[in-house]
TrEMBL record:
SUPFAM superfamilies named in the record: CheY-like, Homeodomain-like, P-loop containing nucleoside triphosphate hydrolases
Annotated ranges, domain Response regulatory: 4-115
GO terms classed as biological process: phosphorelay signal transduction system; regulation of DNA-templated transcription
Organism: Sulfurisoma sediminicola
Protein name: DNA-binding NtrC family response regulator
Pfam families cross-referenced by the UniProt entry: AAA_lid_14 (PF25601), HTH_8 (PF02954), Response_reg (PF00072), Sigma54_activat (PF00158)
Matching SMART domains: AAA, REC
Residues the record lists as 4-aspartylphosphate modifications: 53
Length: 442
């Protein structure tokens, strides 16, 4: 794609000349004769860089650069006798400067250098984020259920289809999303993960769609949203079932049209990000009840991958346990005794793979380096020891009723200590608070 440049200079003749030269170099160039006109252009377009005359009749150069800092690379135009202005501009956040009259070779060299540096900076940030948030992406296990999941991933990954991933908390839905991204043509770009239940709705909307300066109290500068960060990549929306109705409507529009607006903005932006979403809730039933938009559900459910809970693929427990033991061991992987492995295979795993991972991490810490993981290192009591959890129901309960009852019992056994309950369930404290709120458990 052609790079777009905005030229803001009040000298009409020089402005037109600069635009013509930039177009001849292969850029798309748009002109503005004042800062007010430049602001109007920015409301309509997203330039890759701005070439700005430091002295404009309607605004101060330093103030403009401060306003634009962090949003666009800025190349300052200044007179030969005003190099101090250029130095001041660089200190304020300008990227580079050119002196008038502008040498055409220097113009092209400077513009291309600024654009390349901006691109390198963006990719550097992408890879830093990728390394910081890296997780083991392999889907371990050779059970029939996991073979079916991998077959579904192989089928859908090369396409741009939206994917809905269903599964209990801790079952590995994000791993599936990562595998879809890594086996797609977008693997070289970013997968942006959004936790749909982690923020208040207004903050979540701002994080997702971005906001314009002045959109709300404290919005002192423009901020690009995560949808924009996922350009050419994948946007993974975790816990889509917790998203409110207003944002559901906006998500539907983005998925169907590829367009959106920042919070407080009037400019229509576009995205080609691929959407992969996940939930541990029954959004099919929620759509029937009216608590989840049916049109969004039908849009999401065109391709569904269901991740089985760990209790339904017990043959995968052993290879998973050995994988996690190798991951957390600092020197050589710790072996797991037959008694400990039997205990692992017999455990209920309400927190699924996440709970197993937490249990092995704890065991590696407790076990002495270089020795083996024994049953007492796992931190839970085997069945038949007199301390089993027994759940009783009238009739046949659904999964939500089982989850609610088990949560209440775990909290009661640990005196309401949410940190301990979260550790037992293999989930984060934030998620335990969310479940408590969801089921009204006290």
């Amino acid at each position: 794609m052609k790079k777009t440049l905005l030229v803001v200079d009040d000298d009409a003749t020089f402005n037109k000349l600069l635009l013509r030269q930039l177009e001849g170099m292969g850029f798309t160039a748009v002109g503005a004769a004042s800062w007010r006109e430049g602001q109007a252009r920015l409301a309509e377009m997203e330039p890759d860089a701005i070439i700005l005359d430091f002295k404009l009749p309607d605004s101060d150069g330093d103030r403009i650069i401060e306003e634009l800092r962090g949003q666009y690379p800025v190349i300052v135009l200044t007179g030969f006798g005003s190099i101090r202005n250029a130095v001041s501009a660089i200190r304020q956040g300008a990227t580079d400067y050119l002196t008038k009259p502008v040498d055409l070779d220097e113009l092209e060299l400077t513009v291309r250098r600024v654009l390349e540096n901006a691109e390198l900076k963006r990719f550097n940030q992408f890879y830093r984020n990728r390394l910081a948030s890296r997780r083991p992406a392999s889907l371990i296990g050779d059970s029939r259920a996991m073979r079916e999941v991998r077959a579904m991933i192989d089928a859908v990954a090369p396409t741009d289809a939206t994917v809905l991933i269903l599964g209990e908390s801790g079952s590995g839905k994000e791993m599936v999303a990562q595998a879809i991204h890594q086996h797609s043509a977008r693997a070289g770009r970013e997968m942006v993960t959004v936790d749909s239940c982690g923020l208040q709705e207004s903050l979540f909307e701002s994080e997702l769609f971005g906001h314009e300066r002045g959109a709300f109290t404290g919005a002192d500068r423009q901020k690009k949203g995560l949808i924009e960060e996922a350009v050419d990549g994948t946007l993974f929306l975790d816990e889509i079932g917790d998203v409110g109705a207003a944002i559901q409507a906006k998500l539907l529009r983005v998925m169907e049209s590829g367009t959106f607006r920042r919070l407080g903005g009037t400019k229509t932006l576009s995205t080609d990000a691929r959407f992969v979403v996940a939930t541990n809730r029954d959004i099919a039933r929620m759509s029937e009840e009216g608590s989840f938009r049916s049109d969004l559900y039908f849009r999401l459910s065109r391709f569904v991958i269901t991740v089985p809970p760990l209790r339904e693929r017990r043959e995968d427990i052993e290879p998973l346990a050995r994988h996690f033991a190798a991951e957390f061991s600092r020197v050589a992987p710790l072996t797991i005794t037959a008694e400990a492995m039997s205990l692992l295979r017999d455990h209920a795993w309400p927190g699924n793979v996440r709970e197993l991972r937490n249990a092995i991490e704890r065991a590696v810490i407790v076990a002495r380096p270089g020795l083996e993981i024994r049953a007492e290192h796992l931190g839970f009591i085997p069945r038949g020891s007199g301390s089993d959890v027994t759940l009783r129901f009238a009739g046949e309960p659904d999964l939500e009723e089982i989850e609610r009852t088990y949560l209440a019992q775990v909290l009661a056994r640990h005196g309401g200590n949410r940190q301990k309950a979260a550790a037992v369930l293999g989930i984060s404290e934030r998620n335990i608070y969310r479940l408590i709120e969801k089921y009204g458990v006290r």
